[in-house]
Amino acid sequence: MLQALPRIGRRRALLGSAAALAVLGLLLWWLLPLGDTSPSGTVTFSTGTPTGVYQKYGTLLQRAIAKDMPKLDVRLLNSDGSQENVRRVATGDADFTIAAADAVETYALEKKPGADRLRGCARLYDDYVHLVVPRSSPVQSVADLKGRTVAVGPGGSGVRLIAEHVLTAAGLDPKRDITPLSDGIGTMPELLQRHRIDAFFWSGGLPTSAITELSRHFAIRLVPIGGDLVAKLHAQGGASRYYRAAVMPADAYPDAEQGSSVQTVAVANLLMTREDMNADLTEKLTRAVIDSRDRIGLQVHAAQLVDLRTAIYTDPLELHDGARRYYRSVKP
């Protein structure tokens, strides 16, 4: 017959069992994503033109989200750019997007539908204004565009908005002093090569692949947009307050810049959604954007500039509650 364990032996056995259960629990917590299930369903993300940075960034972000939230189906929508992106999210035609701060402010100032519902998730990277001409062009400043044919971007694009502000700051009427064409980055380079236009404006992250490719087989220059124009831009008021003086580094487009940096104007890009978007989903998507910075940055240089320390500053948009929850969770 088995004898009862001594009291001390029974106590040691119980403590040993408890310790084993604790270790097992920690292993399960580590191996299984308990209480952290992936959001499910479908969301739409409005990006940009096929050869622009918005589109490439959106495609890579879609892959990152698929890895972090495998049950969530993210569908990408091409667009003309920032102005169309803002309208889509505000009116419910898209759930998330990237748009420049000046386009967001313009939409609000014009009191368009759903403007008060827009919310920010993260400040991402800056768009830089490009004024591209053939290397042999006599154009040395924005003012020199007078009387010339210039592609200024589609009506719903961010480049159209900023090009009109820059032209006005240089003393030109965007509709009368130039012949404006509504082409985008998909057709601008070819038009320049064929001498169908004298110049084109583009606003995008550095580098933009379409301009890189153009510079490799056609001699181009980037016309400086000097600091004096920034003061004139700010004097316009409204959305122009979001423009700031910037410098395109010499290695952004080596074949075009030939070792020289270029003065220009920049504006911040914002990841945005609507007030009614699910807070848990928004928190996780914001986390995915920040966490995927280095992976996306290997292919989209602009993504390397996403910084957790500045991402929270989404002016002119109020932070979405889900995004705010994320930043609080990572606050040191």
Protein model, in words:
With 332 residues, this protein is α/β, with parallel strands linked by helices. The protein is built from 13 helices and ten strands. The chain has helices spanning 7-31, 53-68, 82-91, 101-109, 158-169, 188-193, 209-217, 227-235, 254-257, 279-291, 293-297, 308-311, 321-329, and strands at 41-46, 72-77, 96-100, 118-134, 149-151, 179-181, 199-204, 220-222, 244-248, 262-274. Strands 1, 2, 3, 4, 5, 6, 7, 8, 9 and 10 form a ten-stranded mixed β-sheet that branches. Helix 5 packs across helix 8 (227-235) and helix 10 (279-291) crosses helix 13. The model is unreliable at 1-5 and 18-35 (pLDDT under 50).
Largest sheet: 10 strands, mixed
Q: Radius of gyration in whole Å, from Cα? A: 25 Å
End-to-end distance? 61 Å
Report the order of strands and helices.
Answer: HEHEHEHEEHEHEHEHEHEHHHH
Number of helices: 13
